[in-house]
Amino acid sequence: DAGITQSPRHKVTETGTPVTLRCHQTENHRYMYWYRQDPGHGLRLIHYSYGVKDTDKGEVSDGYSVSRSKTEDFLLTLESATSSQTSVYFCAISESNQSQFFGPGTRLTVL
Amino acid sequence: KNEVEQSPQNLTAQEGEFITINCSYSVGISALHWLQQHPGGGIVSLFMLSSGKKKHGRLIATINIQEKHSSLHITASHPRDSAVYICAMNYGGSQGNLIFGKGTKLSVKP
Q1: What is the DSSP letter of A75?
Q2: Nearest Cβ partner of B95 from A40, A96, A102?
Q3: Any chain B CB within 8 A of the CB of A99?
Q4: Cβ–Cβ contacts within 10 Å for residue A8, how many?
Q5: Which residues of chain A does B100 touch, with a Cβ-Cβ cutoff of 8 Å?
Q6: Do A48 and B99 touch (CB under 8 A)?
Q7: CB-CB contact of A72 with A22 (8 Å)
Q8: pLDDT tens sequence across B81-103
Q9: Bridge partners of residue A70, in order along the sequence
Q10: Residue B52 backbone class (left: φ over 0; alpha: ψ -120 to 50; beta: rest)
């Protein structure tokens, strides 16, 4: 299995608080992705990175920001969490034109 | 709008049956992915293909580019195949242009 971890695995927070989720890889893959998964929807891309300090928006980027200061870490930040951001968040990694490897997911609840 | 449609949404089979899950997409693609999500939530990539057919063990994935259609087949199904199978299309030449279907929930009964 690809070396990809997410932290925390579970988090409960209150509306209006900032939240940062971390994705860490040991595979030195170029691409990293953040998705959210909600009932009734497929996985939806939030942001992705194609290199250190290189990121781009996905389908549902509003309310989220990301940073990638080194190859192995990709951070997802909710500046002011809202209840609509309650979801399961998955990180994934890949090389160019290759399959993605997914992390175990983070379950976030915003009260 | 770029879309991925999967059918059926839910599928129940008896152990040993041959299973087919279908995926249709709306635009030209650079690649199509099949993923498996286990009951515990973990997601595993099964196939990435842009033409023809790929096989891994009892799983076979095919794609027809002209018809914008892909199928995932499971031969000699087993209860451990019970999972959600997700199709996703990569379009526009960018790694970030990935649209996922809503998944097909498969339950294989012993």
Answers
A1: E
A2: A96
A3: yes
A4: 12
A5: 42-44
A6: no
A7: no
A8: 999 999 999 887 777 778 999 99
A9: A73
A10: left
